[in-house]
Amino acid sequence: MQVWDGRSGAPLTELLPPGQPVGAVDLAFSPDNTALVVAGEPGLRIWDTHTWKLRSIRYGDAQTTQRVAWSPDGAYLASLGVDLIRIWELQAGLVVHTLRGYSDQVLSLVFSPDGASAASSHVDDRICIWDVATWEVRQTLGGHQGWIRDVRFHPDGQTVISASFDQTIRRWDQSSGRQLTVLRGHHAWIDCLALSPDGVYMATGSYDRSVWLWEIATNHVLHTLHGHSGTVAGLAFSPDGALLGSASADTSIRLWDVRTGAALAVLQGHTKAVCDLLFDQSGHLLISGGYDQRILLWDVSTGRNLGSLDGHTGIVCELALSPDGATLASCGGGDHTVRLWDLNRGAPIHSLKHPGWVVSIAFSPDGAGLVSGSEDGRLRRWDVASGKMLHEWRAPGPYAGMDISGISGVSEAQRQTLRALGAIEMG
Question: What is the mean pLDDT of residues 322-349?
Answer without folding.
Answer: 93
